[in-house]
Amino acid sequence: MRILLIGANGQLAQDLLRFLTPDEVVPVTHQQLEICDARAVQALFDSVRPNCVINTAAFHLVDDCEEQVEKAFAVNAAGVNYLARAAQGAGAVFVHFSTDYVFDGLKQRPYIETDLPWLSPSTACQSWPENGGSTLL
Question: How far apart are CA 2 and CA 83, in angstroms?
Answer without folding.
Answer: 16
